[in-house]
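Moderator note: this is an archived Q&A kept for reference. The question asked for a predicted structure of one protein chain; the sequence and the answer are reproduced below.
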Amino acid sequence: MQKTIIKNGQIITPYRNLGLGYVVIEGGKILEVGAGEIELSNATVIDAQGAYIAPGFIDLHTHGAGNADFMDATVEAYLQAARTHAMHGTTLLYPTTLTSTNNLLFDTFDIYKEAKAKNTEGAGFGGIHLEGPYFAYEQRGAQDPRFLRNPDPKEYLEILERSDDIARWSIAPELPGALAFGRELVKRGIQPAIAHTNAIYEEVLDAFENGFRHITHFYSCMTGITRRNAFRYAGVIESGYLIDGMTVEIIADGVHVPESLLKLIYKIKGPENIALVTDSMRAAGMPEGRSILGGLKDGQEVLVEDGVAKLLDRTAFAGSVATADRLVRTMHQVGEFPLVDCVRMMTATPARIAGIDNRKGSLLPGKDADIVIFDENINIKTTIIEGNVIYKN
């Protein structure tokens, strides 16, 4: 097989920086990683020119990019979003739905399969992330309130039987029937996650024991400390900090989660328990101005300014326009965290959360050759997926 050598770059494994080194690729896999130089005859050479060589970025939660949303329910929307994210260093993403009708959901399952088979020019698809419809009304955020309801076994079992591509399902764990639902997901190898929730600590602890080990978009649409009949109760935010085995994801655009909170989350949870996610809508990778949140047919018009989407009256955020490179850049330059840790939160940690760290998320022999090359400002130079150059700047 033809070998490819990526050389003359700072190797971020992502647990350490090896200094100037090389990565050898063969058959879509990493064959060798080392410091210094290597010479191989008859190999394709990619010169990193002193830039950083790191594992490809993994986005556990995105709704779209490049003026395409997964709720557009077209194959081209999937492919366009994947291409756009690849330009920003993402090598694997998890297409995420919005609360909708079940018929649209079933259509999405079919489109996902078709798009995955045709996706050769963009970030790979790791599985579908269902966001809703089992959410607390008060914490609905941008989710359509018409479709919110409690988990019903008759309904969710039918949904689960319709697709074998579901990787994760985000729900509010305090709803009646949610814990049994979580156990069903775990039994099927699907990750239940906590989101859009009014839960208090005791309910989160129950959820954790029933398989809910991850919190979706930490700090967004969830409880902090509340008072009920004068007594204070810890909420989901405090639970995320208190429960050591709970992982969290953050929209690290510097807007959804400001600098002070980025530093607090990092200080308490550490890079081993934090995944950076874009939670991006269609305006990611696009100029600022008017856009649509959700599908083109029935989505909501929003305004993108100040690096975030807002409702037209500017009373609330209406979605992220972040890309993976921006997340790493924000954590490194605004949060002032070590670059190795910033890369880890975009690679190895999300890979472990998704249960794919045996093949993705780090530069190790035998793992998939998903690699990104970027400069000191986290500007993407090259994106490589399973040994193939998908994007080159």
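Archived answer notes: The mean pLDDT is 96.
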